[in-house]
């Protein structure tokens, strides 16, 4: 999906011959598609209104510009992966699609740091910095989420914490289900906003 037909054609051309994924007609049958949404500026997407908003847990956003506040908004809307337009090669896009399809997230390191910083500032601005940590997440869940926030993959988290990959996936699934969160990026944003993740 893209407002600019030239941009859309470029993305389609990059992905059309990749055997790892299948391009679907917009109105074709089948399961809910994973959407690659392209925009020059994240503000264009946010201004487009609810009818054009990302679909929860099924969206990869390719964008040229995005500020920290916009990043927080698109994560809340359901964007699971963000790819800078300047880095949007066929390999990079396929990787993002595959990660989202497996239930993982994919944010560039600079955006992940920005997301955590923005959530921390928002929390401190509302005076929550001195409040005790809320109840609801176990220490194991917090450990897993903290490593997700550092950009680690499931396999790396499992090795670091000496759990199986299945256990790590189960922990994240339980948190998302219990707290009605859409994806890993949303879990990190929620944990940071509620005070489970701290910054110095």
Protein topology:
Blueprint: H1 5-15, E1 35-41, H2 42-47, E2 59-65, H3 68-77, E3 79-84, H4 90-101, H5 109-125, H6 139-149, H7 154-161, H8 165-179, H9 184-193
Parallel strand pairs: 1-2, 2-3
Helix pairs in contact: 3-5, 5-9, 6-8, 6-9, 7-8
Low-confidence stretches: 128-135
What Rg, in angstroms, do the CA atoms define?
Answer: 17 Å
- Determine the strand fraction and express it as a percent band: 5-15%
Give the strand order, joined by hyphens, for the main sheet.
1-2-3
The global form is globular
Q: Kindly, what is the distance between the CA atoms of the first and last residues, rounded to a whole number of angstroms?
A: 39 Å
H/E series: HEHEHEHHHHHH
> How much helix, percentage-wise, in residues?
40-55%
From the helix content, strand content and strand pairing, which structural class follows? Answer: mainly alpha
* Tally of DSSP β-strands: 3
Count of DSSP H/I helices: 9
Let me know the largest β-sheet. 3 strands, parallel
The overall average pLDDT, rounded, is 76
Could you walk me through the main structural features you see in this protein, from its secondary elements to its overall organization?
By secondary structure, the protein is mainly alpha-helical. 50% of the residues lie in helices and 10% in strands. It has nine helices and three strands, in the order H-E-H-E-H-E-H-H-H-H-H-H. The protein has helices at 5-15, 42-47, 68-77, 90-101, 109-125, 139-149, 154-161, 165-179, 184-193; strands spanning 35-41, 59-65, 79-84. A three-stranded parallel β-sheet has the order 1-2-3. Residues 128-135 have low confidence and may be disordered.
